[in-house]
């Protein structure tokens, strides 16, 4: 079964729009990564102020390969990207959560 990696982003209220705009113009490289299965940017409505970047992968190894490869290019200036072309990250903090999928369902 797949694994789920969720990056939890603390985003100050005045930076929300900036964050969403950055994702709107994201690299789009993750779609081409081997073992990539799903991505969603989740905007908080109730119960938390944190944005979730939900990703699902065929295996831990596929996720690690992405982290060591195109993830870096897709995060220029936000999460250790080397270019730093963008002035300042929109998020003030981040935490990575890891899960394995034990059950799943989709509509019949
Ligand atoms: C310090 C940690 C991180 C921060 C602040 C951050 C923030 C961002 C931002 C603002 C973007 C939009 C593109 C850009 O402006 O660079 C982005 C893209 C993305 N982030 Fe992160 N991120 C971090 C780490 C991670 C991690 C650990 C994951 C793994 C779940 C992740 C998953 C993604 C994905 C899938 C994209 C889209 C890439 C693409 O389109 O190819 N991020 N991130």
Your description of this structure?
This is ABM domain-containing protein. It holds the Pfam family ABM. InterPro entries: ABM_dom (IPR007138), Dimeric_a/b-barrel (IPR011008), Heme-degrading_MO (IPR050404). It comes from Streptomyces filamentosus. Residues 3-91 form the ABM domain. The protein is α+β, with helices and mostly antiparallel strands and 108 residues long. 21% of the residues lie in helices and 28% in strands. The chain contains 3 helices and 4 strands; from the N terminus they run E-H-E-E-H-H-E. A 4-stranded antiparallel β-sheet has the order 2-3-1-4. A hairpin with an 8-residue loop joins strand 2 (36-42) and strand 3. The longest helix has 9 residues, at 16-24. The mean pLDDT is 92. The chain binds protoporphyrin IX containing FE (HEM).
Low-pLDDT segments, ≥5 res: none
Coarse structural class: alpha+beta
Cα shape: globular
Strand content: 25-35%
Oligomer: single chain
Domain ABM: 3-91
Region (Disordered): 71-93
Protein name: ABM domain-containing protein
Pfam family, one: ABM
In a nutshell, what does this entry contain?
By secondary structure, the chain is of the alpha+beta class. Helices cover about 20% and strands about 30% of the residues.
């Amino acid at each position: 079964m797949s694994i789920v990696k969720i990056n939890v982003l603390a985003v100050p209220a005045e930076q929300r729009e900036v964050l969403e705009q950055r994702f709107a113009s994201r690299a789009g490289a993750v779609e081409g990564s081997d073992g990539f299965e799903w991505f969603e940017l989740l905007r908080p409505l109730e119960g938390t102020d944190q944005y979730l970047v939900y990703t699902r992968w065929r295996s831990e190894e596929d996720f690690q390969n992405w982290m060591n490869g195109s993830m870096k290019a897709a995060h220029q200036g936000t999460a250790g990207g080397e270019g730093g072309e963008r002035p300042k990250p929109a998020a003030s903090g981040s935490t990575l959560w890891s899960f394995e999928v034990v059950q799943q369902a989709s509509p019949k």
